[in-house]
Amino acid sequence: MKLAADRVLGLCLIGLAAFVAVQAARLHVPFSYDPVGPKAFPLILAILLAALSLVLVLKPGSNGHWPDRSLAVKLLAVLAALLVYALLFTRLGFIATSLLTTVALARAFAAPWGKALLTGVLMAVGSYYVFTAGLGISLPSGDWLRPLL
Amino acid sequence: MFDFLIQGFGVALSPLNLGLAFLGALLGTLFGALPGIGPINGIAILMPLAYTLGLPAESALILLAGIYTGAEYGGRMSSILLNVPGDAGAVMTTLDGHPLAKQGLAGPALGLSAVSSFVGATIAILGLTLFAPLLAEVAVMFGPAEFFALMVFAFASMSVMMGKDPIKTAIGAVLGVLIGTVGVDSGTGVLRYTFGMAELYDGIDFVVMIIGLFAISEILLMLEHANRKDSSGDIPPLGRVFVTLKEVLFCKGAMLRSGLIGFIIGVLPGTGASVAGAVSYTTEKRLSDKEGTFGNGDMRGLAAPESANNAAAAGSFVPMLTLGIPGSGTTAVLLGALMLYNITPGPMMFSERPEVAGGLIASLYIGNLVLLALNLPLAGVFARVLTIPRWVLVPGIAILAFVGVYQLHSDLTAIYLMLVIGVFGYLLRKLGFSLAPVILGYVLGGLMEQNLRRALSISGGEVEILWRSGISLGLWIAAAALLVLPWLLPRLVKARLGRA
């Protein structure tokens, strides 16, 4: 058997179906008027998912285009930038993290440094005022920035 | 019979709602024109903001519906000017639209597509006004068993019609339904698939789900497109901006027929603008392509899909408003948006919440006029949107996504969950899945389980109740036919040909 993306996916999904089924079977229902209960529906879904995935394993489609190494590195870099954005969002505040993320993302999308920095500053400060003053959304301001504003 | 419409115009003509219809049309066109952002992404990104504004349900829906129809208008920009379809519904528009632009007729092509979109949408909105109340009256007779059968039918029709690979469409829908089962089970209070995480007790939040699935995965996909050098990004000159009456009249047949086709396809649950565009284009080519000009810049080849995809967009409101079954991925998102307001669309909506149903329909009439008025003279302005570089667009989407999710609960867990769902969405798209079934499954799954359990509670556990009534039996047969026929018919034809 050829190793195709669809085969791997199919096997993973069968694993998921088994997991869903086991978890559903282990649900403990203390008391219920409902003849079906919370188990049946996930069990039906698990069976359906396993059956459909089996078709995928037996008859996989074309493999599609997967990113090469340099693109994969870039994708991971973009994901890392978003993750760092989330990690620091409340700690450093909206303006600082948005500035960092915007510059990082703009660089990942091949913007020159100058334009990336300019976009970052305009977007971070501009959107902060639009969201907080214009739309009344409270955003983490980053207390350490307060004296500078 | 049309009381709801009169009341609806009363709602839609209030200054706030009129302003929102205008704003929605404008934002929708802009978002639709942005490369890579179709109606569903546009709504996903802008929906949290609609909540933040604290709008009442009907106003929020008017804004979101305006964005939806506006994005269907905007999607044609990149199809015509750059030969890159802005979204799935605009794929067919490239076939004759881009050749027209290369002949120096980009301006008239944009104008014609605006007029065709207007005609198609008008036909469908009239159809919606006429048929929705009738269908709602039939649907009032639906019990839980009928609704369950209807959802089975909707998923069957979606598997067959949506996307290239029926198996993957079905898997996508099942995954969506499974994601919907996370959280407290409403029937018994038992926790399902929460793994002890308190944040998951209420289930995976709708906003987190759609922003992750559409906005975050889109950022990752854009990175790939940015690295591929397939389009120069140069916009051809627009030429004269207005389309002539003669050109419009030349296409009137194509527009009217395609509008009707688009409406009917839009009404079918699970099939959306992309199917409508394809069917109308091939129909029109068969009917009117006598000189073989289709594909080389025939105006009728542009008018047909443009009329049909806007008609389908409006038509997909019919099942959503009357049965609570969305006709497309985008209406699934709108349905989810309504459910956040504790409104479950369904047959009772016309009688119980006429201001929502009527207000929405009335605002579609208004929005359609606004869109025509905006798009004819301002085509050149909207076309400039295409030149916005990705390195400005992507950080903008990221900031909107983060703020949109953060303002829900001021909680970082939701943001991490959004990123996880984003990666999941990206992988699904790379594996050839379309995301519309996933979101349809996620939105409909809970209702499907509720109706199944309610039906079986009524019958005391007897499964027969699911197909006892004529309506539900008919729906089961229709669903089975949909699943079996595409597989069976070619074989039968082949067998017959083999014998002859």
Task: Produce the secondary structure layout.
The complex is a heterodimer of chains A (149) and B (500).
Chain A: H1 5-25, H2 40-58, H3 69-92, H4 94-108, H5 113-134
Helix pairs in contact in A: 1-2, 3-4, 4-5
Chain B: H1 3-12, H2 15-33, H3 39-52, H4 57-82, H5 93-139, H6 144-161, H7 166-181, E1 183-184, E2 191-192, H8 206-227, H9 245-250, H10 252-267, H11 273-288, H12 299-315, H13 317-323, H14 329-340, H15 349-352, H16 354-385, H17 390-409, H18 412-430, H19 435-459, H20 470-499
From the structure above, extract its key features.
heterodimer; A: 149 residues; mainly alpha; 5 helices; 0% strand; B: 500 residues; two-stranded antiparallel ribbon; 20 helices; 2 strands; 75% helix; globular
What does this structure look like?
The complex is a heterodimer of chains A (149) and B (500). Chain A has 149 residues and is mainly α. Chain A is built from 5 helices and no strands. Chain A has helices spanning 5-25, 40-58, 69-92, 94-108, 113-134. In chain A, α1 (5-25) runs antiparallel to α2 (40-58), α3 (69-92) packs antiparallel against α4 and α4 runs antiparallel to α5 (113-134). In chain B, a hairpin with a 6-residue loop joins β1 (183-184) and β2 (191-192). The longest helix of chain B is centred in the N-terminal third of the chain and has 47 residues, at 93-139. The chains are: A mainly alpha (149), B mainly alpha (500). At the A-B interface, α1, α2, α3, α4 and α5 of A face α7, α8, α17, α18 and α19 of B. Chain A: It comes from Billgrantia sulfidoxydans.
The fraction of residues in strands of chain A falls at: under 5%
- Based on CA atoms alone, the radius of gyration of chain B comes out at 22 Å
Total count of strands of chain A: 0
Q: What oligomerization state is this entry in?
A: heterodimer
Structural category of chain A: mainly alpha
Shape of chain A: flat
Tell how many strands the DSSP assignment of chain B holds. 2
Q: How far is the first residue's CA from the last residue's CA of chain B?
A: 56 Å
Largest sheet of chain B: 2 strands, antiparallel
User: H/E order of the elements of chain B?
Assistant: HHHHHHHEEHHHHHHHHHHHHH
**Which term fits the overall shape of chain B?**
globular
The succession of helices and strands of chain A, N to C, reads: HHHHH
- List the total number of helices of chain B: 20
